[in-house]
């Protein structure tokens, strides 16, 4: 799960991260009141969406640009807020459809000297928390890594030892920080590490971490992601969820406890077993089309759960065809057939459906499907199934 910048800054601040003073606003009037209460006479108004690249973003159908704007008076904060709230912001991370801006963050502005990059993430290969930092902040770290890999510095944290000050000191020197900034960098890293470990995060990213003209370190932007498998330890994190920012297909799937990940392709997949689901996605890809989702209905799923899964696939406007690939073991083929028939009658089957069933109660399942009158295509094996669904989707596009 991802959270907004303003929420991430609140968590980081509680662990000792230096951040500018700011508050979240839901209207232009509220933004103005917040600006009045802030120190100084320069403010930053920031669109709160779960996507980066806001600074260079553009609003759909609007001349005013920018999801991050520098205001030089309280009046300007109100004007900018009016131009930003309830508009759709397109950044290179949102896709062309953009995201509706429902909230703004209003912060005290600062004078930037240098922009650095800092993040903490899990390096799965090393099985360690890794610090990534660079002198080239304010831009995409992927670009920096591609063009000038020598400017990306990393250090991994020994899980037995935890965060060590000497690592921060070493990185600070390599970032050409001086004097009090070295002590501040240690504090910044400790705060990032404490926040990460306290909340079982999977990412903490500060981009940019700035050195102000006065020579102090300050986290100007913050992004955090969490490992939902650890949510049982952090009930309060669930309150930070913003359903407006989440894939509606995944929300519906979560309500039924399904392992579902929405993707951008056109072939909906209903499969049992994560490995078979991955193989099914690969083979669709090998046939030249893309899966619309990952879905593992699991072993002992009920008819209701399978029907919910099938409804989610059929309700997805991107889906041009559905491939059901079940290797019946604990999951029985007749349960799958029953759920597919039920959900198809309920929602209406408007796209081609290819079914490949094997294993427990396969005869019963296939008989039920054939007798249901649904216009489905039966496949013998995985390769056959992929070829058939791809052919059906393509002929659907031509007609
Ligand atoms: P992103 O584009 O979504 O990553 O949004 P950021 O929060 O990183 O803001 C983009 C850029 O706006 C930063 O890299 C800064 O250059 C600039 N910016 C943000 N806050 C301030 C501020 O308080 N003062 C000044 N001068 N610039 C700021
Ligand atoms: Mn940023």
UniProtKB/TrEMBL annotation:
GO terms for molecular function: ATP binding; magnesium ion binding; malate-CoA ligase activity; succinate-CoA ligase (ADP-forming) activity; succinate-CoA ligase (GDP-forming) activity. GO terms for biological process: succinyl-CoA metabolic process; tricarboxylic acid cycle. Residues 9-55 form the ATP-grasp domain. It catalyses: GTP + succinate + CoA = succinyl-CoA + GDP + phosphate; (S)-malate + ATP + CoA = (S)-malyl-CoA + ADP + phosphate; succinate + ATP + CoA = succinyl-CoA + ADP + phosphate. Its EC number is 6.2.1.5. Belongs to the succinate/malate CoA ligase beta subunit family. This is Succinate--CoA ligase [ADP-forming] subunit beta. The lineage of its organism: Bacteria, Pseudomonadati, Pseudomonadota, Alphaproteobacteria, Acetobacterales.
